[in-house]
Prior knowledge:
Radius of gyration: 19 Å
CATH architecture: Up-down Bundle
Largest sheet: none
Oligomer: single chain
Strand content: under 5%
Shape: globular
Order of helices and strands: HHHHHHHHHHH
Low-confidence stretches: 1-5
CATH class: Mainly Alpha
Number of domains: 1
CATH topology: Glycerol uptake facilitator protein
Number of strands: 0
Number of helices: 11
Mean pLDDT: 92
CATH superfamily: Glycerol uptake facilitator protein
Amino acid sequence: MPEIAPNPAPNPALNPTGLDAYKPSQIAELVEKAGVAKANLALGPLLTLAALAGAFIALGGAAFTMVMTGADPGFGPVRLLGGVAFSLGLILVVVGGAELFTGNALMVMAVVDRLVPPGALLRNWGWVYLGNLAGALGLVVLMAGTGLLDGAMGATARAIAEGKAALSPMEALSRGILCNMLVCLAVWLSLSARSVTGKVLAVLWPITVFVLLGFEHSIANMYLIPQGILAGAEVTATQALGNLLWVTIGNVIGGAGGVAGAYWLAYRAGVS
């Protein structure tokens, strides 16, 4: 991520918490600078980082599937633990560095301030979405080769995929909106942190909560639904693509409008 001038050491008289973090107004500036950098990435690095992000989120999805094996996938405190396991995906994206479609909804802030042309935003989103898909599907193939989906984990994978396919368009859209509000808040909070530990903790709770509540993440579903299909889930291509369509639209609304738009109004509107 791009750097800005560091804050001076916290003054206990002015900052009794002693927290050494970027202020929200500085986070907004970091987000816009990151948006410009993302828009200017060459195609090769962009696709590579996008494929990595898809694979990272898929690893989180695989961990979630295993944690939920033997438990009710719909309710209970086990879902909280499943959310912690799934957080691995975004932690790898944020700390390791990768291009994730859902997090890149924050680029809208740079577009509104005319730092990034709309065409460059759509270019980034399009290639990143395809790269995320490639990375997620690559992990599906590798997981199928492990044999893990032939046993109890496969039964969990089937249940997860069939549950997603059963969602109505309105349910998928609403869950997609709420999901990416939390994902983008996780990215936003991670930018406030100056240490790896701070970034990990900033990501952990928003992601855990979206999984706990059963919200829908388009890139995670690029892994979870095909994983379930390979494990024998009764999900048609039409159902899978329908889920992905509505969840993706919801993710864009929640991230670009719900988080990027709100924080632009709060911290960047009227800033030259």
